[in-house]
Amino acid sequence: MKLANINPSNFNYDYDQIEKDKINFDYYSKYYRLHTDAILPTKIKIDIDLFRKEIVKYHNLFRQWGNNRNYLPRYGISLVNYTGDIYGENDIACSPLDQYNAGVKKEDHLTEFDFNKKTELFANLKSLDSLNLISEFMLRSNILLWHKHANFIPHIDTAPLNNYNLRLWGTDDPSNYNFYFLNKQVNMDDIEPGRIYLIDTTIWHWAEAKADWIYTFFISTTNSIECFETIKKILL
To answer: Is the pLDDT of residue 40 over 90?
Structure first.
C-alpha cells in the first residue's frame, strides 16, 4: 500500500459506509441476544407418531442429498424450495447450496432467500401444522432421512451478518443421533423427539446417525425484524 498522510484532518470520511457498518454491528448484537446458547427449544413440536405414518406416502420422492459423499445414505425432500415442485428431475434445495453455487457462474449463484416456495409436502402433512408459527418466514427447508453412519462433517452454515438467514432444527429420534457444536456433544437426553430448536450455525457443528430411519427437520427462515420477534416469543 502507498504511504499516507495520517493526520485525521486530512481523512475523507465516507459516512454512508460508516452507517452501513453500524447496521452490521447492530445486527451482530441482535443475533447473539437471540442465540444465547447453541441450541434453544421453541414451542414448535411435531407430532412424531403421525409424521412417521404420513411421510411414508412420500418415500419415493426423497432424493440423494447432493452430489458429494454419496457413499453415505443421506436423503432429503423439500418443505420449501426454489419452485414449489417435489416431482421434477432435480431439486436444488436437496443439496448443499455452496456445492450448487460452485458449479454455476457467479451471476447464477443462489442464496437461501431465493428458496421461498412451499411444497405439497408442507401443505399435506398435518403433523407439521405447528410449523405454521413460523411458516411466513420459512426459506429453504427440508426433511432429511438418514440411515446408520450418515453424517454432516464439521461446518458452519451462517454468519451473524445482515444478509444471512436463521436456522432451526429437530429430529424424530434423538437417542440415535449425535450432534456436536465445536467439540461439545449435545446431551441428547435433553432433546425431545419432534421438538424444533433454534440453533446457532455460526458455530462449527456436525451430526451423525447411529441407526437407520432417522429424520431431521432442517429449517431456514428470514432474518427480518418480524421473524426475530416471532422466534423470541416462541422460545421456551
So the answer is: yes
